[in-house]
User: Fold these one by one.
Assistant:
Number 1:
Amino acid sequence: MTVPLPTVEVIERTMAGREVPAAEVEGFVRGWTSGSVSDAQMSAWCMAVCLRGIGPGAAAALTRALVGSGDRLELGKLGPTGDKHSTGGVGDSVTLVAAPLAAALGVRVAKTSGHGLGHTGGTLDKLEAIPGMRVDLPLERFVRQVRDVGIAVVGQSDRLVPADRRLYALRDQTGTVSGAALVAGSVMSKKIAGGAQALVLDVKAGGGAFFADADRAREAAELMADIARPWGRRVRWLVTDMEQPAGAMVGNALEVRQCGEVLRGAGPAPLRDLAVTVAGELAEAAGVVADGEGADAAAAALRTGAALATAERWVEAQGGDPAVWTAPERLPAARMREEVRAARAGVVARVDARTVGEAARWLGAGRLSRGQVVDPAVGVEVAVRVGDRVAAGDLLAVVHAQDAWLAGRAVGMVAEAVALGDDPVPPRPLVLARGRG
Ligand code: URA
């Protein structure tokens, strides 16, 4: 009989970059969920994972332990089910368009999501900006809604990956959000427990993401696809650019407003294109459209208003005000707006997503401390994209704030985030790599 490693040795070995057997990692995480491993020990281990990494077997073991902390849904009887997940970005509200878009194409969208993590936004915070919207659906209701409405989005709960809910909050408070294995375990535990058979993973790469470049993001994507394999899921992954915010809005109600524009056929092209790409991949992976036809089918569902109608039914089913997509004045709005203008003429060389995300977090769109209540109304509206030409005095951004001091601080951060140069900047592709699991 092998004797399990003492908890402290699991931490020390990880810190030293030495391999810890998968069974020991699973035991360590299960020990934490049952109370024999403390939060302090788990935080130390997470820090070691961020700094040294762990192998794919250990990442899969972490995922298994997180999945095993709650129920695992079986949705086979519902038809072609699908879910998508982003590894976290700034102004990344793709789900709010791609999920109803995929549902409009016939995918039964059974989506699990999280709140904001670090400087990145979270789908649950965005949805909670919609008056009345509930994301804490009991599991039976979640499954019924997937069956009857064709789309439901739910957060971690006492029954669905409760250990991910706790670990998510702990990582957020201890600055340990970025380790690839931690992100992979967190994302994949939700996807596996949520029960959807087809998965699209949108792995963000760049300064505003948890993966600094496309190579690191691709490794994380492949790791997540490997984790999904023994669970029999069909995975497609995309590595997408997160050097600049995905859309023009960064902040919860602001992003809902912008997604309403996209659902009505307008809004920023990069956000629309990414939503169409993700929904198209999901529809193909779920088998509701033929390979190679997903993006065209998704673009058509946006044009005809089918996605908007689905989004309205979805929000209404979860208790929210379905009119927010077409009547954005029903969303919470901040008390003050401060403009950021160009100090000189030039070409936008950089819109630093991380700094914009941090500015939004300072304004209250995300959490700086444990239990902080997010303010749905605040955020940053970015008026330019990399490569745009501006004249001196042109609008670069608008800060939406409740408080003059915070507005001033955010204005300074956003002004620093937008760098102007003199040379033309070639556009960066939105999708940097793609693959299948
Ligand atoms: N999304 C998640 O669910 N978890 C992470 O760790 C990052 C993004």
Number 2:
Amino acid sequence: MALRTILNNDEGALSKRSREVVNFDTRLHILLDDMRETLNSAGGVGLAAPQVGVLRRAAIIELTEGELIEIINPELISAEGSQNASEGCLSFPGIYGMVERAVNVEVKAFDRYGKEIKIIGNELLARALCHEIDHLNGVVFTEHVTEYVDREEAEADRKRQGYRR
Ligand code: CO
């Protein structure tokens, strides 16, 4: 495994729509393994392939250490309710803001071997799924921020949301 460089949103690097993954091969597996190492090293909870400069529809989420979710070609098939809480992104270091997201979502995706999976996400996982799928569509969280908050406010809010990392 190798660490990859996480892009900041300079010059709109994260504004492009990523393409579908077609080959569920070693190249994809290396990408996903590298993304996991990069995510863990950076101390985040989610990372999308375009954040490491690969414009493919793949993302990972690890809300609890050791419980990795990999989503390839994810599609949001339902979204209900709303929650307003603070959010951040590894591509925007030190920036936090309040973002309204669905509370309950269902996502259809594929695993790294090309097998179809369905993920039901509530609260924090719903937020993370929406955030990562946005990245694959070239949308960054700052486009949804209603109010920016400082680091202390964001950390207090993260605890309230149940982040364990
Ligand atoms: Co992000």
